[in-house]
Structure formats: structure tokens, C-alpha cells
Specification:
Shape of chain A: globular
Mean pLDDT of chain A: 85
Low-confidence stretches of chain A: 1-11
Strand content of chain B: 15-25%
Strand order of the largest sheet of chain B: 1-2-5-4-3-12
Oligomer: heterodimer
Distance between the termini of chain A: 16 Å
Largest sheet of chain B: 6 strands, antiparallel, barrel
Helix content of chain B: 25-40%
Structural class of chain A: mainly alpha
Shape of chain B: globular
Structural class of chain B: alpha+beta
Helix content of chain A: 55-70%
Order of helices and strands of chain B: HHHHEEEEEEEEEEEEHH
Distance between the termini of chain B: 43 Å
Number of strands of chain A: 0
Strand content of chain A: under 5%
Radius of gyration of chain A: 15 Å
Chain lengths: ~170, ~375
């Protein structure tokens, strides 16, 4: 299991790769925490760990196609366990994965400050996409609560600084 | 052409993935004739949930093992002292029990006089909550009992505290439960004191609301709420919660906006009961009794000498009278409108067949009943989103 996912290296920015166990295990762990641990610790619902993992892998790999595929798989699995329509989180996280990896190609997002801002913005983008999809495709009366959305985005941004620092240890250079 | 695909590989892949997901999402949107949202994608959800259920069960079992192992074997300080205290407590409880049994016997006798159909919980299956949605957009939980335990969709899920929700989807080893505070939930309820009926609905923020009671009705904060049984899902008389707030309709409508504090702790569910069978208990002679004539009702109400009732052969119970001298609601006196109205055909509220309602003499308007027509208390699921 030592074979790593092959990624194209670029000269300007550091491109990382991850081993198969990490590529599969970390998203599953994030889903586990989101849907299972939140049963006991309700405050966890303010975070979106699958979204954070999507952003982390997309930015670290710096390739749009793996980034969007990661988001699609994680989002779809999240939908399956959340009991919502399958595709709501899938589509939103696909877009976020694509955008995050495209951003990672252009700018350095490996410092805490940029990670905070990046995650904050992507949390808002994800929420907007989710609501647009839910209203536009499912015709659901999805409410928009600015206060809660901002609090959630800040919480996710703070968590990303901590989480990404831990996940950095799992990175491998090609 | 090859350059085109190479150059625009990433956007093309993005569009392809999005297209597939949008199409799959579209297949799940229920058409108006199928009220099973979100029923599409059931197979993939079934596979996924069935695959992870054994692991989750094992994890929950392990955590219980350690938790109980600690409490049952290690944390045994002061057990002897507690034992003495409990023995003393037991003696007190036994005396109290004897007193309560006397009261319960009296209560049973009075209950037997009430002529109404009483729904009660016939059979339940205990289940453990093993997973939540982990999302604030949907309020569902997964329990560790499925079709193999006899569960089926639309069964009520309760706790001793109050109602929790209903089974939405059933898998072999687990089931998905839609909580009452989900915005797709609904339940028929009665305000216990005022006897007003309404429909309990969840909101997008996980709150409970009743929004179909006329604004000129008096509803007090703290008033208990019970299930009406009209939705054919929740057995009648189960605690739902209490009135937490009463305000005007935010949309300016003629209804009150009533906030409900749930009786069950919906945020920290662990063990629940699934009502697999609602038995319908009926007083033995209620349906077989001859219909009551209007002239008899009037004769009972008019000031006259009460008619002595011939004792029924084999029935040793003497005819009982109320304090006003009127015959009590005997099994033959069937209160009006206690027959269940099919869900979906109800246009107005049918007075609830409750002890209070049934105790009212037949034909006497119950002052506690609302005078205005209410909406259908069936309280089934909302129309698909």
C-alpha cells in the first residue's frame, strides 16, 4: 500500500501526493465524525468536515480533475448518510473541489492566514451553491440565514487552520 | 480535436461530473403523485447504510461495554450504603404503591365507563440510535433495527418522554427515522387543556411549530401538547411537548404562530421505541350497542324523573349516575363523531375521542371544544418539496 497517487509536479508550486490509505481513510474519517460523532456532540454540526477535507486535498494536489472528483465522491457519500437528496452536497463539493484546486495552482495557500481566508470563502461558496441547488433543482424552501452561515464559515475556517496543520504531516513529495 | 480535449480536459470533466449528478438528482425528485421524498436513490442508500451498520453497531456495542463495564464493576464505591438507603426507599415505595393501586382501580372503573375508542400502543421494538445526519439541513437518524425486526415505513418512533419521529426508510438491519422537527415532518396534535387541534410541523431550523390555530383562540405558554392520533402514525395521547411561545402569524394570516418545546430530547437520542403495532382497544359493547335515539338524549337532559335502567342479565354493575343525577356515559351511550374519519377526507376537526370529550353527555356541546372549524388534523407529511 505504499504506492502513492501520481500527480504532475510543477516547478512554481509544491505539489503533494498522498498514499492510498490516507486518500481513502481521511475522507471516511471526516464522514464518520460528521454523521456518527455528531450524534453525541451536536456542536460538530456547525462544522463541515467533508468540506474541509475536500478543500485540503484539492489545494494540496493542485490538479482540478482529482480535486473535483474528490469533492464529488465525498459529497455524494455525505448525501447518502445525511438522508438528503443524493447530489446536493455532491454537486456543491464538486464545484468547491474544482475551484480550490484551481486556486491552489495559482497562489500559495499553505500558510494559516491564507488557509483561514480560503476556507471562509469556500464555506460561503459551498453554502450558496447548496441553497441554489436545493432551491433551483429540488424546489425546496431552503432558508438563508446570514448570521448562521457566517458563524459556520468562521468556525470552519478556524478548524481548517488546525486540521490542515495536522494533515500536512500526511503529505508526501512526489 | 485531440488538442481540444487536452486543453479543456478539466472543464469538460467538471461538466460531465456535474451533468451526471444533476441527472441523478433529478431522478430523485418525486412527482406529485408519489409522496415519498426523497425516495429516489434508495438502492444506493440502502447498500451504503447496510454496509456500515454492522461497524456502527460494533462501535456502539464496544462503547457500551466500556461504559457499563466501568459503572457495573469498577465504580462500586458506596454500594453497601446505597443498598441500605434503597431498601428504606423501597419500603416507602411499597406503601405508596398500595395507595396508588387503590387509586388506579378507581381510575380503571371510571375509564371503563367512557365510551370511546382508545388507541394504545400494542407492540414496540426497542432500538438504538447509531447515526445522525450530521447535517443541519436534514434531521434524520439511523436506528439499529430494520425490516428483520419487523419495522416498516411510517411507524411511530417514541421515547418515554415523547414522540420522536417516524420511520421513513427501512433497510434489513437498520432504518432511517425522520425526526418530528424536520421540515418534512408533520403530526396531528391536541393542546391538552384547550382541546384545540392542530398540525405540528418542523422548520428548517429544527424547531417545532403549530400554525393552524385561529388567532382568536387562547393558547397559554406551558400548555402540554399530546398527539391526536388523527395522522394514523402516532398513537393518540402521547406527549409531544409544551407550548413555548405564542405569537401572531408572521405572514399576517389569521392563525397563531405557536412554538413548541419538544418533550423528547431530539438532540441527544440514544434509545427509542418503534411502535410496530397500534392496537385498537374498544369497550366491549360500544360498537354492538343499539344506536342512541335523539328522543332518548333529550329525555335525559330534560328535568324529569330519571328513568331507572333495567339491569342487564349477567351484568352485575349497577347503573351509575353522575353528580347531576344524569346517567353516566355508559357503554351504550356513544358520543357523537368518535368514529374515525379517514385521513385525507377530513375537512373539519372531529372532536377528539378523549376522556374529557367522552365524559360529556351525548349531544352536549363541549365548552372546551373550539367553535371554529379547524384544518385537517391528519398531519401527514408535507407535500414533496
Amino acid at each position: 500500500m505504499s504506492r502513492a497517487i501520481s500527480l504532475t509536479s510543477r516547478g512554481e508550486v509544491e505539489v503533494y501526493q498522498f498514499s492510498w490509505p490516507v486518500s481513502i481513510g481521511v475522507p471516511l474519517l471526516a464522514l464518520f465524525v460528521q454523521v456518527f460523532v455528531s450524534k453525541w456532540l451536536g456542536f460538530i454540526r456547525i462544522f463541515d468536515f467533508p468540506l474541509l477535507v475536500t478543500i485540503f486535498f484539492a489545494v494540496a494536489r493542485r490538479r482540478p480533475t482529482p480535486g473535483l472528483m474528490t469533492g464529488a465522491v465525498i459529497g455524494t457519500l455525505q448525501d447518502i448518510f445525511a438522508g438528503t437528496y443524493i447530489g446536493l452536497n455532491g454537486i456543491a463539493k464538486t464545484m468547491v473541489g474544482f475551484l480550490a484546486s484551481s486556486l491552489g495552482v495559482r497562489i500559495d495557500v499553505d500558510v494559516p492566514g491564507s488557509r483561514f481566508i480560503m476556507t471562509f470563502v469556500f464555506s460561503l461558496v459551498h453554502r450558496v451553491l447548496y441553497i441554489v441547488i436545493n432551491r433551483g433543482l429540488v424546489a425546496a424552501n431552503e432558508p438563508w440565514n446570514w448570521g448562521h452561515t457566517l458563524v459556520s464559515a468562521v468556525a470552519n475556517a478556524l478548524m481548517s487552520v488546525i486540521l490542515f496543520a495536522g494533515l500536512d504531516r500526511l503529505k508526501q513529495r512526489p | 480535436m485531440e488538442n481540444f480535449f487536452t486543453r479543456y480536459k478539466n472543464p469538460l470533466v467538471l461538466m460531465l461530473v456535474l451533468f451526471v449528478q444533476v441527472v441523478y438528482l433529478a431522478t430523485q425528485i418525486p412527482v406529485p403523485s408519489r409522496n415519498n421524498a426523497p425516495g429516489g436513490g434508495r438502492l444506493i442508500r440502502k447498500w451504503a447504510v447496510t454496509a456500515v451498520t454492522p461497524f456502527e453497531k460494533a462501535l456502539v456495542g464496544t462503547s457500551h461495554f466500556f461504559r457499563h463495564g466501568w459503572s457495573d464493576y469498577i465504580d462500586l464505591h458506596n454500594v453497601r450504603k446505597q443498598n441500605h438507603e434503597l431498601e428504606a426507599e423501597l419500603a416507602r415505595v411499597k406503601l405508596e404503591q398500595a395507595r396508588l393501586e387503590t387509586a388506579a382501580d378507581q381510575n380503571r372503573r371510571l375509564q371503563a365507563l367512557l365510551d370511546f375508542k382508545e388507541h394504545y400502543i400494542g407492540q414496540t421494538v426497542a432500538a438504538q440510535v447509531i447515526q445522525s445526519s450530521g447535517s443541519e439541513q436534514s434531521r434524520v437518524v439511523i436506528i439499529d433495527k430494520g425490516s428483520r425486526a419487523g419495522l416498516a415505513p411510517d411507524m411511530a418512533v417514541i421515547t418515554p418522554g415523547g414522540i420522536v419521529g417516524k420511520v421513513r426508510e427501512v433497510y434489513p438491519l437498520s432504518s432511517q427515522v425522520l425526526l418530528v422537527n424536520d421540515r418534512e415532518s408533520g403530526a396531528g396534535i391536541i393542546l391538552q387543556n384547550s382541546r384545540l387541534q392542530g398540525i405540528l410541523r418542523g422548520t428548517a431550523y429544527g424547531e417545532l411549530r403549530v400554525s393552524d390555530i385561529m388567532s382568536d383562540e387562547k393558547v397559554e405558554v406551558g400548555e402540554p401538547i399530546i398527539t391526536s392520533g388523527g395522522d394514523r402514525i402516532y398513537p393518540k395521547g402521547l406527549p409531544v411537548g409544551t407550548v413555548a411561545s405564542v405569537g401572531p402569524d408572521p405572514e399576517g394570516g389569521p392563525f397563531l404562530n405557536i412554538g413548541i418545546k419538544p418533550a423528547a430530547n431530539l438532540d441527544r437520542l440514544e434509545e427509542v421505541l418503534v411502535v410496530t403495532k397500534i392496537a385498537e382497544s374498544q369497550v366491549a359493547t360500544a360498537d354492538n350497542a343499539p344506536s342512541h335515539r335523539a328522543v332518548d338524549v333529550l329525555a335525559q337532559r330534560l328535568p324529569s324523573i330519571p328513568k331507572t335502567q333495567e339491569p342487564v342479565p349477567g351484568n352485575k354493575t349497577a347503573p351509575q349516575k353522575t353528580t347531576e343525577g344524569q346517567p353516566a356515559a355508559a357503554p351504550g351511550n356513544k358520543p357523537m363523531a368518535t368514529k374515525p374519519v379517514p385521513v385525507g377526507n377530513q375537512k373539519k376537526v372531529v372532536p377528539a375521542a378523549t376522556p374529557q370529550g367522552a365524559a360529556t353527555p351525548a349531544g352536549t356541546p363541549d365548552p372546551s371544544q373550539p367553535s371554529k372549524p379547524k384544518v385537517d388534523p391528519a398531519g401527514g407529511e408535507k407535500p414533496p418539496r
